[in-house]
Design brief:
- The protein is mostly beta strands and about 240 residues long.
- The chain has a single domain, classed as monomeric porin ompg (Porin, Beta Barrel).
Length: about 240
Amino acid sequence: MLRLIALLVLLAFPTVAQSGAWLREKGALFLSWSNSISTLSTSSFATDTSLYAEYGLTKRLTVGFDGYLGASGKASEAYLFMRMPLGKSGGKSGGKSSRPAQMALTFGMGVKTIPNPWGTTTEQTLAKLGFSWGRGLKKGWLGFDASVSSVVKSSIFVPAQAGTSFSADFTWGQKPSDRLMLIWQVQTGKTTNGPAYAKFAPSLIWSFGGGKNSVEVGLVKGLTGDNTQSVKLGFWKSF
């Protein structure tokens, strides 16, 4: 069911970077769609699809959707979330912040489907809490995003699939020009049924259409605890 819902959402937004500590302006909508295509010989061309959307509901409240549709045999997730600033909010990323640093808290509820080898799919309800810190630079930004997600309810109890997952991402964004952006990111974490991992995910983003549209080309490479090796292709759109 989750895979069907996620697919319908993707079809509904065929032309769709999370802002981390920076909230969306009131009435602003941002959509991001991406595909990560495996280049490993054991899983060549296996594709993971992600969809991210956020909307500035008020000056101090951003709401959104964060979905991940895993390749065949892999888990899929979808969250609805809300993000609120810690302290006064102001400015945007990319060196335009009027304050030296921004912080925000994110609360989310979601669902996860886990294919199991015996044929019965596990359906889980999850709760997520996130913290983001960001600092604007003259031509870029620094960011740190951490989250913890816990299983609230599960259709099938499997010890290895229950419990809590953690993630922490470190980002350095560069903006050499108004149309070009480089993102250097290290993704780390610990899932409920896997080892601690670290991945390197650099991306190049090129903007067009007055800055309202962007294309993303990147790589994802597992460093430890993860053998991911893939090419990432994405599209961003702001309204």
